[in-house]
Amino acid sequence: MTAETPVESTRKVARGELTPGCPVHAGPDGVWRIQDFTTARALLRSTETRQAGFNIENARRMESKMRLPVLYRDGAEHREHRRQTAKYFTPKKVDTAYRGFMERLAQQQCDELTRRGEADLSHLSFALAVAVAAEVIGLTEGGAGMARRLERFFAEQGGTPGWRNPGAAVRALRGNVNLGLFYWRDVRPSIAARRAARRDDLISHLIDEGCSAPEILGECVTFAAAGMVTTREFITLAAWHLLTDDELRHAYTEGDEPRRVAILHEILRLEPVVSDLYRTTTADLDLPSAQGPVTIPAGVRVDVGVAAANLDDAVVGADPGAVCPGRALPDGVGGAGLAFGDGPHRCPGAYIAIQETETFLTRLLALPGLRMVNPPQVRIRPEIASYELVGLRLRVG
User: Fold this and answer.
1) What is the pLDDT of residue 7?
2) What's the pLDDT score for residue 140?
3) Using CA atoms, how far apart are residues 356 and 104, in angstroms rounded to an integer?
């Protein structure tokens, strides 16, 4: 399998009609839509935008009372925070501080599958993702069951808010109860331990910045969503591809680490966990596009179609809908395309996510007799434009 010979593997997740390279345009709802790679990357790199999406409207209601999590901030404050915390996510830091930890955790999950004979992959991968993210964040003083508490909290998110929607109040109540349990059992004891003695992690940094307990809780929740939930979904998605494509699985298991990482990047390019990123412009933006320069006016909402842009053959080359590791990409274009975003809000944990996915799947696929009992059910979470894969069961022996 070479870059010129794509593996015949297409998207597992249907997201509706995608039109890669479609001209930039404003829809009837007033939202501008970008679906070509060049314009999408330029918009994401612009400093004349504000973060939108990810339920930011609800978060901004608290802006006068507390500092918002970094996900929802922009401008100089956001850039400075990212600069100071970048040290926790560098490849060197991951390799020296977390790689051995990831390997032990991955082996524990594989041993659990071997012991039980059959298991749901999303449960195994979430336990791994939670433990790794907790180590980086500093959520290491809580009791057992943090993964279960977080899973229950995130399960209550989404849906149509408001009292007119049956069940909305019940979901909100359950969500608040689970958030409270996460705070009291996991966040609060971790803060207390780091107030007594700082460590090399995010919570210690936030304490030094003078953050209050609610502000630290907010950061922990957003990092949990970004570093735990999305990684779980990608591990499941990548395993689904590898377990249903013998050629791709062989290329992965027989390849060295760079080759395995290239395959994972290519799968992620094809199926980014988050398909759309949203921004609000703060000035008129003159952007390049495949059809020539385009101007997006100030004060409008922009939908950056990452899933569509990653299929733009003008950038990613021929057969954009096929898994083709080792594509000849232009300078400055990563193997995963825009799956981790770009610009000021690019995912800081991109290297960690790929590393733990590679570490786990390499050990998982080496288990004797590993096979998929049934494929997952696919759910789309429109509030964060992501997929959720449920029920992919594995069996060994």
Assistant:
1) 41
2) 92
3) 11
Residue 139: closest CA among 72, 206, 46:
206
What single letter denotes the amino acid at residue 220? C
State how far the Cα of 327 lies from the Cα of 319, in Å rounded to an integer: 10
| Strands of 276-281's sheet in order across | 25-26, 32-34, 301-305, 276-281, 49-52
Give the residue ranges of DSSP H helices in 183-275.
188-196, 202-208, 213-224, 230-243, 246-254, 257-270
Burial class (CB in 10 A: 0-12, 13-18, 19+), 335: buried
Output the pTM of the full model: 0.91
Query: With contact defined as beta carbons under 8 Å apart, do 37 and 314 qualify?
Result: yes
| Model pLDDT, residue 306 | 95
pLDDT tens per residue across span 340-353:
999 999 999 999 99
User: CB neighbours of 174 closer than 8 A, spacing ≥ 6?
Assistant: 152, 156
CB-based contacts of 198, cutoff 8 Å, min separation 6 = 204, 207, 208
Beta strands in the chain (DSSP E): 25-26, 32-34, 49-52, 118-120, 276-281, 285-287, 294-296, 301-305, 371-374, 377-381, 386-390, 393-395
Question: How many CB atoms neighbour CB 314 within 10 A?
Answer: 13
pLDDT score for 370:
97
